Amino acid sequence: MNLVCPSRTSARRHATIGRQKKKRTDGLQGERNMKRTVFVRLLMQLTLAMILITIVSGTVVYGYMDRMLKREVSRSNIEVLGQTRKLVENTLVEVQRLASSLALNKDIQRAIGLDWDMNAEYRFLESINDSFRDKVASSAYIHSIYLYSGRNGKVISNSGIADLAGFWHKDAIVPFMKESKASSWYDTNPISYAEGTKENVLSYMMSVPLHALNKSGVLVINLKEDLLYNAVVNTNNRKLGNVAILNASGSVLSYKDKELLFTRFEAADADAMKNGQEGYFTHDVNGTDTFVSYLTSDFNGWQYVTFNPSREVFKQSRAVLGVTLTVSGLCFAIGIALMVIVSGRYSRPIKRMVQAIAQRAEPAAGYKDEFSFIRGSFDRLWTMNDEFQEKLKETEIVMREHFLLHLLLGKPATQEETVRELDYYRIPLQPERIAVLVVQTSASGDADHSDDSYRSLLHYRIRSICEQIVEEHGGGVVVSQVQKYDVVVLNFAEGASKESAALAAKTIAMSIQSGIAEQTGLKTTIGIGGYYDKVSDVSLSYHEAIDALLLERMSGAGSIVAFQDLLANQANRNTFIAYRSQADKLIVELKSGSLDKSLAIKTEIFERLGGDDSLGYHYKNMILTHIVNGIVTVIFELNGNAEDVFGTDPAMYYDYGKQSSLSGISAWFDDMIGRAYRFIQHKRDHKNADFMDKVTAYIRQHSKDQLSLQSVSETVFMNANYFSKLFKETTGKTFVEYLTEVRLQDACALLNETDKTVTDIAESSGFGTKLNLIRAFKKHFGMTPTDYRKNGVMERLENG
Predict the structure, then answer these.
(1) Do both 668 and 618 map to the same domain?
(2) What is the DSSP letter of 249?
């Protein structure tokens, strides 16, 4: 019995607990020694990026919506301003037409040219005054009409005659008399009345007579500006706001209240209004931020302007800004929450890893973040942990095998990349002058090799044999189990030619073959690929070696097949032509019905192929394939098909490809030649009866078409004369007689069973015309088709 001191056990347990606490403390201390974690820094950077993106996107969206709203409001305002301009211009045109008609009035022209004698011309002047009063009374917009005579220095108005010196409109008339213009509109002028009221008018002046170089007088028509403004200009007040009319120089012609005239526009805005046909801008008008839309008239250069308080125009813009800020803030909050969740989710396993490493290794201060801590810990483990280094070496071995496997299978890589990988994995293979051997093994006896451990040991022994032989002959590398093959990559000495490399590769292959046979008892077939200068082309040599192995059935198991042997030369070609002549002779004997001679020629060909090492394997395969094609051609020439000879699912070429040796292929040909011979004999015994059955069936099926001896013979791929002779021998009738008989049968059936006309029956049965049908009936039945139908009806009536 073993006794344990309780005090010693308790001390050991306390020591273990103390070490565990120290490790946890060291882990926490290692975390505290780190600076801000990478996740916190990443979270802060993403937050700043999101804030910047939110501000920029919000600014862009708000600016875009602000511009769109301004354009929309401006478009609407300018559309209504255009309507207002049209109304105003229509009124102005009416005034101009009125002025023109008055200026052309003979009485007014006479009044301008005469001296006014109040006694003699009173009636005349009074009539002019009355006409002015009538015009004023008939118009809602005309305030007054004046006629000034420069000769008399007086003014006739609808209220009487007055001297120019005391006339209230003198300051406008005198400058106009001096100007060269025949007519002109003038700014708004206020008229003060005795009771203290004022009224604004727009004045239109026209010289009398018209287009005179020296003006004799002036016709003045004053419009009621306030009435025009309220009735015409500001019709759309609710939609447009306040509307004003400016002349070409920017002076106000019409506005709702002259005492509340807006301040002058800035120079840039004024220039824009002069140079542009229409547009908008924002301006401070009497202390109010105002959205101004303007439209310039082509008629007289006047500018139609409307004013809308900006706060009313951009209510929607502010709403959009609010929505934008709300959505941006919501997205920002969601983004921050997602970042916190995601970073927390991925930071927890990193944190646990840091704690685990800190508990098992001495933590050091000064690490910037978790990843630098982990990297530093792995660096220490690399130098301290022998077990880790050993596992890493095992991993390198696996990676080395993967690299060689990819190199053989053709993974895309440049020569420089391949050389760099060879150096990294320390593979004993030079990057130039290479060739590949592919080793295929098969059991020579009946031994059971199904045990996995035995197979593994066998592969190891084969690899060891290959490595030993390769090392003895100059160097290379061995790769096991590449697509069920063992692969040897050989290096050759500098300056080696393709011929010398091929000879050296065959020597090494024979050494490997004999070594494996001696030590394992296995039979080995080896394929040799081509010689290449660069190691990056090793996959080409590997696939050439695989192609060489495919011809094992020609060379036999346990042979060495070089890809170079597959290449043709002139001697091989001449031999091939001789073999093909023998194959053609075999087919001729088979067609003539001589089975024994056919088989004898076949046997002779195979004996020569088996002992002819000079002929390439590729040519041997072509010769045998030529014989297969010849047998199939014979069957088709006799109007047969593969199913008639080889069964319902022959897969003839597939069966031929499955044969793995010359002896197997020879036995397979014996069977194929025998089947073809029996088919030929069957065809001869029946004298083409089967063929003619198919031809007559075709004629019956297509008797309604335009058939001829030539067309049918071409359909069955035969000469027309030979076909006619064969048809007569087989059926006892000529082609035309048989076709006419079939068509008459169809016509008789239609006459007895249908009510079709003779013309329709002639077309349906293939005779084409009614006349051809009648001739055929008279020749064969001695009556017309109509008589034939009547006789048939009478017979049916008599038979009840």
Answers:
(1) yes
(2) T
Report how far apart the first and last C-alpha atoms of the chain are (Å, whole number): 128
Mode of pairing for the β-strands spanning 522-528 and 560-562: parallel
What confidence tier does 7 reach under pLDDT thresholds 50, 70, 90? very low
Q: What span, in angstroms and rounded, lies between the C-alpha atoms of 266 and 281?
A: 11
Q: CB under 8 Å to 345, separation ≥6 — which residues?
A: none
Q: Please tell me the total count of domains within the chain.
A: 4
535 with 613, same domain: the answer is no
Same domain, 415 and 532: yes
Domain assignment present for 53:
no
Residue 203: beta bridge partners? 186, 222
Give CA–CA dist 102/219, Å, rounded.
8
Distances 706 to 714, 739, 743 between C-alpha atoms, Å: 14, 11, 12
Query: Please, where are the H alpha helices in 166-215?
Result: 170-178
Q: Any idea what the CATH number is for the domain that residue 146 is in?
A: 3.30.450.20
CATH of the domain at 729: 1.10.10.60
Q: Grade residue 748 by pLDDT with cuts at 50, 70 and 90.
A: very high
pLDDT given for residue 6 in this prediction:
42
**Residue owning tokens 């046979």:** 517
**Is residue 337 included in any domain, yes or no?**
no
Say if residue 628's pLDDT is above 60: yes
Q: Do 396 and 542 reside in the same domain of the chain?
A: yes
The answer to whether residues 178 and 205 touch, using CB atoms and an 8 Å cutoff, is no
Q: Residue 227 has what pLDDT?
A: 64
Which H/E stretch holds residue 749?
helix 735-753
Give the DSSP letter string of 439-498: EEEEESSS-----HHHHHHHHHHHHHHHHHHHHHTT-EEEEEEETTEEEEEEE--TT--H
| Contact (Cβ atoms closer than 8 angstroms) between residue 74 and residue 313 | no
**Owner of token pair 């016709």:** 219
Q: Tell me if 357 sits within 8 A of 374, measured CB to CB.
A: yes
Q: How far is CA 241 from the centre of its chain?
A: 53
- Of 507, 505, 520, residue with least CA distance to 460: 520
pLDDT tens string 125-157: 778 878 888 888 888 778 888 888 888 888 887
Cβ pair 761, 785 in contact under 8 A = yes
Whether residues 451 and 556 fall in one domain = yes
Looking up tokens 């007895």, which residue turns up? 752
Q: DSSP letter string over 486-499?
A: EEEEEE--TT--HH
Residue 414 and residue 482 in one domain: yes
Contact by Cβ (8 Å): 244, 170? no
CA distances from 285 to 195, 259, 262, 588 (A): 33, 14, 6, 115
Spatial CB neighbours of 483, under 8 Å, sequence gap ≥ 6: 546
Q: Residue 236: how many CB atoms within 10 A of its CB?
A: 16
Same domain, 538 and 464: yes
**Domain end call among 659, 685, 711:** 685
Q: How far apart are CA 625 and CA 627, in angstroms?
A: 5
Whether 285 is in a domain gets the answer no
Q: Can you tell me the distance from the alpha carbon of 204 to that of 456, in angstroms, rounded to the nearest whole number? A: 119
**Angle between helix 617-637 and helix 595-611 axes, rounded to 10 deg:** 170
Of the three residues 531, 566, 601, the one that is the final residue of a domain is 566
Q: Are 529 and 548 in contact (CB under 8 A)?
A: yes
| Domain membership of residue 537 as a residue range | 392-566
* 344 within domain boundaries: no
| pLDDT > 60? residue 729 | yes
- Does residue 630 sit in the same domain as residue 647? yes
What phi and psi, each to the nearest 5 degrees, are found at residue 282?
-105, 135
